[in-house]
Amino acid sequence: MSGASAGLRPPDAAALRDAVARSLAEDRVLEDVTTQATVPPDQSGRGSLLVKRDGVLCGLDAAREVFRQLGGTIAIEARAADGDAVACGQVVATRAGPLSTLLSGERVALNFLQRLSGIATLTRAFVERAAEGGTARITDTRKTTPGLRALERYAVRAGGGHNHRDTLADLVLIKDNHLAAAAARGVALPELRREVRERAPHTHRIEVEAPDVETALLAIEAGADIVMLDNMTVAAMREAVEAAAGRAVLEASGGVNLESVRKIAATGVDLISVGALTHSAPALDISLEVEPA
Length: 293
Description:
- The structure is a single chain.
- The chain contains eleven helices and twelve strands.
- The protein is an alpha/beta fold and 293 residues long.
- β9 (226-230), α9 (234-244) and β10 form a beta-alpha-beta unit.
- The radius of gyration is 23 Å and the shape is elongated.
């Protein structure tokens, strides 16, 4: 994204275009009967994107893509970049051009800005709270809005977080159901790990979900690269970290919130995955204040 802060890796350009195109089609923007009936095509206007709550900005180029696809000659001036902290009352961008285009594209543009900025804002809160306790990275999960994963994961990065596996093809993650399926055919974790190493690409790391310290150590002894400490108490996580002694990457997961994340980070885990970043982030309140010419 052209407006992104330095070092912020943008989402795939095609994913951005497709998400915007689907949203415009969903809203039937080209059939905006209200605007077509009330606004002459030659009337111009100016719009200001106004932030109404402190947060972290994200999604400016998604909003820009909305107006690009609508074909209007909208001139956009960005006054902030994705990843920037913004304050209530701040104008983060202005746009000028055909008033009908501004009005018809307003809701779709704001939907992207509010949703992505909300994710970036919540992520920043988790990152800052975790830093009070340790050096663990905050990561997202695959609990994303269908069709918007690339953009939502970008918003996590804009907030200072990191991305977990993007798809099922990116990492071998052996969870409780996989372990149960293996046990049903008489295969224990060490043998299952050997099977995985034979069948999966050699470039893929192996992560094992562990509900307790005993399983975590068994996974480490079996050669897991990453162990997910799933829904463990803080005391159990600390015990697992001490027993692991750096032999595997340890990820805390399950029920993490802003009240608990500092204590979890203080256990010494390497990663803390938080599904709430994408499935429960409240939208950041942003409005488009339009001035007709």
